[in-house]
Amino acid sequence: MLVFWNLNFFVLYSVPDYQLASSLAHFFRVGSLFLPAAILHLSLVLTGRPVRGLRLVTLWIDYLVAFLLTLVNALDLFVLELRHFAWGYYSVGTAFYDLFSIFVVVNFACAASLMLFDYTRTTDPRMRLQFKFWLLGVAVGLPLGVTHLLPAYGVPFYPLGNLGSAAWAAIVGYAIVRHRLMDIDIVLTRGIAYVGAAVVVIGPTLAATIGLQSWAFGVVHSDFTATMLLLLLVVCVLFPGLQQQAERRLQKALFRRKYEERAAFAAFTKSVVRILDRDKLVRELCMTVRSLFGLEGIALFLKDPDKTHFQLTGSLGTGTVHSRVDADHPFSLWVAQQPGPTMHSELPDPRTDIHAADIRDLWETNRWEVCVPLVSRRLLLGFIALGRKLGLDAYSAGDLQLLGALADESSIALENATLYEQLRKSHDVIQRAGRLSALGTLAAGIAHEIRNPLVSIQTFFQLAPHRIHDEEFLTSFLSLTESEVKRICDLITELLTFAKSPTPSLREVDVGDEISRTLTLILPQARTRHVELTTTVNGSIPTVLVDPDQLRQVMLNVILNAIEATANEGAVHVALSETTHQDKRYCQIDISDDGHGMSTETVDNIFNPFFTTKTKGTGLGLSICHQIVTEHGGFIEVSSKVGDGSCFSIYLPTAHEARRAAITHESPPPALA
Ligand code: ADP
Ligand code: MG
């Protein structure tokens, strides 16, 4: 369209003959009349806005205006005459021309505002770059394009629009090639394919239109020819979409049931891959199959972990009476051999199979009609047993085929869910191992911490009989004992809480409180190693939505590492503050030490499980920390320099931020082990 626009002016400036210039401009104008609508359309697509509702209506109106203006142009009501300027002709328009000028300005302004709006909002660097070049192109091209208004209204100013559009195309083209903003191969192949197809279709049609006109009327009307071509273009553009839609609708009308089945199947397979909870999966599967086929009842049996039997894991409706089937029951062995869904009529024959009676007995007691094995990697995971259909219809071959496909998808999903469950269990085991290892490190310090006051108390009891009347001795010692005993109690409480197997639960917690509780546990260790442990809290810090046990585990691991990295007389500092990162509010816990620091190679590996540089290290601490923090929607940053020390910054979204993310699903809500 831009090409048509340029050609329109090109012929006006360069063709000296009035009549020829007038008719050529008349012809090329048709293409340019659609430019404003197309620009708006393009900007909607480029900014990723769905073209629906009000936007769709606006676009339709836009294209309709363009189409009406094309008719106006065909009726010769668009341009009054051509005025001659020093550089060539220029059109003197009618009121429709003014309308078109407004149409251009409004559409271009809307498109530019959309881009500008998104440019200021988007956080995607690629999109920003795309918008930047577009806007730059528009900023150069639009003012030059506006110069066209001057000669149109009699001012003899050379219109610079061609230059503007060339500059715009050059800037956008540069951006595409330089920054690979579009897949250039696709652009090229699509472009060539479109041009090729257009030449193949339009060439002969043009020849036929001209030939037929001169044969039938003796003259060739350029307007008629242009309109025919335009209609052809519109048909070419609209046809594929319309054809697809028509096909879909026809299929829906003629094969309604089949269509619905297919849609339900597609929806099920789409949702099923995301379900990692086995029970939920079983429920979903039973509900889908039951409603899809309109069944009286359905039952789903899955192999028990000890593999001795198949357990009824989900059922709906009536029928099934057995809640388990032994793995060595003839029925189980028979199902394992079935390649797909099997009907009652396909049960083994009692005359040829000695187990047939047992199989039939189980089947008929439960009033099953169809049995579908669930097989993954050639292993029978379980089976689905289907009762009669509600309308007493028979199962068709199509039904069995669909059931087979459903079973294949479900088997994969069920196996995934089982694997996921196992993964979670091993994850729990690793976390517990991490805790125990941290406890092991703490033990020596804690023992020391408890022994010291106990020795003082023992001394008191030894001295007491001799100084029983010494008032001062008694008061000072009693208060000292009280505070020491309280400290030991606190320490033991923390120790027990930390050691107990965690039952994760999200709570709104004050990070400052959790730091103090962690320090209770860790101070003895710092003291034994002669490390000074200090904290600062910057301002009032908002709460976070975390599992407090896990938060303490994270801080404990990182502080323990810091203490271990620090030599005698060293210092570890814990600072708590609030910060913003990518427009989100976080609580930031900085744990810095002046220890031996880490090389960049070590830093690259610290979060890998089992990576350790210590002779007695497990290498689990930081990998667990990373996992816990990520599950809570946060992240950890590390800076370190060999010889100078390290700083671990833990970022956790504030409770308010975490709730917002859970509502808008910006990031998955925290999943806990
Ligand atoms: P472990 O403590 O059992 O070695 P971690 O996962 O806790 O396992 O830590 C992994 C490694 O990261 C440590 O072996 C150590 O090399 C390094 N590291 C962690 N924190 C620090 C720190 N504050 N200063 C120096 N090195 C550290
Ligand atoms: Mg560690």
Give a written overview of the molecule:
The structure is a single chain. The chain is α+β, with helices and mostly antiparallel strands and 673 residues long. Helices cover 61% and strands 15% of the residues. It has 21 helices and 15 strands. The strands form 4 sheets. A 6-stranded antiparallel β-sheet has the order 5-4-3-8-7-6, with helices on both faces. Helix 3 runs antiparallel to helix 4 (53-74) and helix 11 packs antiparallel against helix 12. The radius of gyration is 39 Å and the shape is flat. The structure holds adenosine-5'-diphosphate and magnesium ion.
Distance between the termini: 58 Å
- Give the beta-strand count: 15
**How confident overall, as mean pLDDT?**
84
* Sheet of most strands: 6 strands, antiparallel
Shape: flat
Give the bound compounds.
adenosine-5'-diphosphate, magnesium ion
Give the percentage of residues in beta strands.
Answer: 5-15%
Share of helical residues = 55-70%
Helical element count? 21
Uncertain parts: 666-673
Structural class: alpha+beta
Strands ordered across the widest β-sheet: 5-4-3-8-7-6
Radius of gyration computed on alpha carbons: 39 Å
